[in-house]
Amino acid sequence: MKVNGTPTRTIWRAEDGAGVEIIDQTKLPHAFVTTRLETLDDAARAIKDMLVRGAPLIGATAAYGMALAMRADSSDEALTAAHDQLYATRPTAVNLRWALADMKRVLSPLSPSQRENAAWLRAAELCDEDVAINEAIGDHGLDLFGEAWEKKGKTGTLNALTHCNAGWLATVDWGTALAPIYKAHDAGLPVHVWVDETRPRSQGASLTAWELNQHGVPHTVIVDNVGGHLMQHGMVDLCIVGTDRTTAAGDVCNKIGTYLKALAAHDNGVPFYVALPSPTIDWSIKDGLKDIPIEERSGEEVSVITGRTESGEVVSVTITPEGSPCGNWGFDVTPARYVTALVTERGVCRATEEGLKSLFPDVAGNAAAE
């Protein structure tokens, strides 16, 4: 996608070949800042502190983190230690585990002298694969937007609601849930997006809105509790969100608040779509409520908010009473029965084990064998 008209990815190898550069998403939307990662610790910190976020981008950053680790020390012990350190950064997004397993599979059989170069090459390949996957998700999702436009009689505005940020900032490029929106907009459909602010970190208000602005997509930022009201009054034609982990049975784990949107959509007959790249599918589990670990983050994300003053200064302020504790669960699970369909790089399917296996018989079979 583009930033101020310039094609840009969220992560790339530095020109000198010795480091990795990322967009520091904690600075958006008030400043566009890139940051250089030079060590394994830098990569781990970028993931844990959410300079990068979004399941696919977390995986890509972990892959480059392995390359940075091999640059410093390519021994067997260092390979295992790097894997374990990166694995511990974020517990919910399965792409992290998938990318690290892939890197270890490639690097373990090699001699230490071969590992650094192989790590850089494989990390770059994973990034390119992510871009291709997400663009394909956009193509398949475009068909759903076309169907919604036909159903609406090709009149008025096609209103989509999304939660959190599942755009190109959450991936290497294109995004998951926003990829079909970009495709629909570029195809000339009159798309308008309701953007949930997505407290407590406001990834919708800060990141999704910033992306849509950059691409020229009409949108409106709303507080998280408005979605149900809009659906009750016929102001939402479809919902589309991303997911950090999807079970083999079609349950989806996404940013906290997604479940409530799915319930509202179900009650009002609004299609609720989930866009996901196949590495987000965890074939090893079927019960999302029981088996997906839900990350609990610092209460300061709830009690402290950052914004820009009229003078242009970016400041952080506390909005809760002193002494009031804050709970901060980062994700929730939406049972498959509330998901209209899953949108993947191989097509659209029902949110069931049979539906997923119909698109990924090879992947599901390999997972079962393991």
Protein architecture, described:
By secondary structure, the chain is of the alpha/beta class. It has two domains: 2-129, Four Helix Bundle (Hemerythrin (Met), subunit A) (Up-down Bundle); 140-369, 3-Layer(aba) Sandwich (Rossmann fold), CATH 3.40.50. Helices cover 42% and strands 18% of the residues. The chain has 13 helices and 18 strands. It has helices at residues 40-48, 55-72, 76-87, 94-107, 112-151, 178-186, 203-215, 227-232, 258-268, 288-291, 300-303, 353-359, 361-369; strands at 2-3, 6-7, 11-13, 20-23, 34-37, 158-162, 191-196, 219-222, 238-241, 245-247, 252-255, 272-275, 281-282, 304-308, 314-318, 331-334, 341-344, 347-349. The longest helix is centred in the middle third of the chain and has 40 residues, at 112-151.
> What name goes with the CATH superfamily of the largest domain?
Translation initiation factor eif-2b, domain 2
SSE class: alpha/beta
Q: Any idea what the radius of gyration is?
A: 20 Å
Q: Please, how many helices?
A: 13
Instruction: Identify the strand order in the major beta sheet.
Output: 8-7-6-9-12-17-18
Question: What percent strand?
Answer: 15-25%
What is the general shape?
globular
Q: Major sheet, described briefly?
A: 7 strands, mixed
Low-confidence stretches: none
